[in-house]
Amino acid sequence: MIKCPLCSNAAEFFIQDKKRAFYTCSDCHLVFANPQSYLMPAALKQRYGRANKASKQKQLVQFIQPLLTQISAQQHGPLTGLNFGRVLDSNSLDKIEHAGHSLYQYDPFIKIDQHIFNRQYDFICCYRVLEHFQQPAKEWVLLSSLLKEGGWLAISTSLLTDLSLFSKWHFKNNPSHVSFYSQQTFDYLAQNSEFKLLFAAKELVLMQKTSKSDIKRILI
């Protein structure tokens, strides 16, 4: 029996392609690759380096800046954020800091600074990161612990919208992509954690941390 790496319930075999087997969880609706097919750290690092090219930097900036604008409109004063899983270029980082905000960064291969885990943040950005989580439950607990109450979690990942199309979905062909989420997965997380789901569509998920007693699911 294979357990779901997000909710720990029993998962079922879903599909086999030329390289990997995939499983699905009927509880949290996560689809994930067989752990035996995970890439070794050296191979992961090589692929990760190709993902940090200039074109990806532009996309990362376009992801973070609107988020800052939205949060600033609702929360006055300087913001302290965490760019989790990627590293923003120095010029873009300078612009954010010149606007009065602070953005800390963590990248498991490029910028490893354990001190970032010793504080909490007004917002956390995860751009093209969650699909790489081999232990999503562990990573979710970490992200929750790093976010202040009322803080924002912005996620960019390709949402799985139709299981029947999974076999032809190009997103699952990247061997470093091992966890695949649908809106139902984020519904599950909101129902079982200190988060409310604000938005989930296409490649953007926006959640807000709140007290467990005050969770209200708001789907836009």
Automatic annotation (TrEMBL):
GO terms for biological process: methylation. It holds the Pfam family Methyltransf_23. The keyword Methyltransferase applies. The keyword Transferase applies. InterPro entries: SAM-dependent_MTases_sf (IPR029063). GO terms for molecular function: methyltransferase activity. Keywords: Methyltransferase, Transferase. This is Methyltransferase.
